[in-house]
Design a protein that fits this description.
It is built from 9 helices and 19 strands. It is an alpha+beta fold. Among the domains are: 77 residues, Beta Barrel (OB fold (Dihydrolipoamide Acetyltransferase, E2P)), CATH 2.40.50.100; 204 residues, Chloramphenicol acetyltransferase-like domain (Chloramphenicol Acetyltransferase, 2-Layer Sandwich). Strands 9, 12, 15, 16, 17, 18 and 19 form a 7-stranded mixed sheet that branches. It has a 4-stranded antiparallel sheet with strand order 1-8-6-3, with no helix packed on it. It starts with a strand and ends with a helix.
């Protein structure tokens, strides 16, 4: 009996997706609800589960095709599931162009690496099915994916896994470096052509639907909103001291680490109550003000940055905030965040500091009217009580829609945050 694999419902107003990768090949054994394909939508990547157990049949769409909700993309031949074949050693094609500098996203491989057959259950087989982004990094760094431990769903390799392996390979040093040629005699300088080493190569990779949508929305934000950014800096001494004092007790009681993000979410909630315009939005000729705060938290995922929403943040405790953020981070790496969890935010926090950013001007996410940019903490000289002292300082950036938020309100918002973070007691007694 043949069962059709159809594109599932993708959420409100989403009618199609892009086929990102086939996770099963024709002839592979398939269990009920086992992922057989990965789809990319405007907001998130999600897996398509098998509607029946059996053997993977015909694939009716190719990677990169746009497929509508309800479209049949493959078939499954039901029946006894045959034993899985041992995984073949994956080979990287020699003819595939590679960018040795790792700078090109414009690369088009001449030969696509075939996904290996699934390995027996006692071997590390599941993660050898590589997504396009992971495959590109594997080829670029000449890695053997079978020797990398996957942390994604069902043991699959994520982008972070492969990048970590590449860094480890660099730390060990190249396996075989070519000895440097002896310096030529002064009377015979090398010609420009003979001085070159290696080849200039390019790669072209199709933009994911998520990246296309991000690009489109950010450009629309620049074209529509009157975006302005204002800055302030915060002495993080008090927050760091409070975290150091209570982090062990906090983790023991709540089962989650106490991070900086909870302090910032609470400070945003406090400041937004005094400056409600930053949590409002423009709809037509009306301004919509809210008595709730749904914070979009930017987190890193294998397919790019995703922004799940922490709802009713103004009413959450420190522990509830940290648990929510930790859950978002874990499921972003697994690719299990739902579309509903990434819709409807009223304010965004983006923490570029985790990547080492000192200062930035973030772009608002329409229809939101403001976004807060956090940055790295570093010791800088500041004047305290007439003396120059070193303090752990962080720059804060608030980008806002000047059509709705005045400069005075933007500055006031950051000042309220600064006061709360430099004296965290304010967060507890609601000042």
């Amino acid at each position: 009996m043949t069962t059709e694999v159809k594109v599932p419902a993708l959420g409100e107003s989403i009618t199609e997706a892009t086929l990102g990768a086939w996770l099963k090949q024709p002839g592979d054994p398939v269990a009920l609800d086992e992922p057989v394909a990965s789809l990319e939508t405007d907001k998130v990547a999600l897996d398509v589960g098998a509607p029946a157990a059996g053997t993977m049949g015909e694939q009716l769409a190719k990677v990169g095709d746009d497929v509508a909700v309800g479209a049949v993309i493959a078939t499954i031949e039901e029946g006894d599931v045959p034993a899985a074949k041992p995984a073949a050693e994956p080979k990287l094609p020699d003819s595939t162009p590679v960018n040795p500098q790792g700078a090109g996203e414009n690369i088009e491989p001449k030969e696509e690496m075939k996904a290996p057959e699934p390995a027996p259950e006692d071997e590390e087989g599941p993660h050898l099915t590589l997504s396009p982004a992971v495959r590109r990094i594997v080829l670029e760094h000449h890695l053997d994916p079978s020797k990398i431990k996957g942390t994604g769903k069902d043991g699959r390799l994520t982008k972070d896994d492969v990048l970590a392996a590449a860094e480890g390979q660099k730390a060990e040093g190249p396996a075989a470096e070519k000895p440097e040629a002896p310096a030529p005699a002064l009377s015979a300088p090398p010609s420009p052509s003979s001085a070159r080493t290696g080849e200039r190569r390019e790669e072209r990779v199709r933009m994911t639907r998520l990246r296309q949508t991000v690009a489109k929305r950010l450009k629309e934000a620049q074209n529509t909103a009157a975006i302005l950014t204002t800055f302030n800096d915060v002495d993080m001494s008090a927050v760091m001291a409070a975290r150091a004092k209570y982090k062990d007790l906090f983790e023991k009681k709540h089962g989650v680490r106490l991070g900086f993000m909870a302090f910032f979410v609470k400070a945003v909630a406090l400041a937004a109550r005094d400056v409600p315009a930053v949590n409002a939005s423009i709809e037509g000729e009306e301004i919509v003000y809210r008595d709730y705060l749904d914070v979009s938290i930017a987190v890193s995922a294998p397919q790019g940055l995703v922004v799940p929403v922490l709802r009713d943040a103004q009413a959450l405790s420190f522990a509830e905030i940290e648990k929510g953020i930790a859950d978002f981070g874990r499921r972003a790496k697994e690719g299990t965040l739902t579309l509903e969890e990434m819709q409807g935010g009223t304010f965004t926090i983006s923490n570029g500091g985790v990547f080492g950013s000192l200062l930035s001007t973030p772009i608002i996410n329409p229809p939101q009217s403001a976004v807060l940019g956090m940055h790295r903490i570093e010791e800088r000289p500041v004047v305290k009580d007439g003396e120059i002292v070193a303090r752990p300082m962080m720059y804060l950036a608030l980008s806002y829609d000047h059509r709705l938020v005045d400069g005075r309100e933007a500055v006031t918002f950051l000042v309220r945050m600064k006061e709360a973070l430099e004296d965290p007691t304010r967060l507890l007694i609601d000042l």
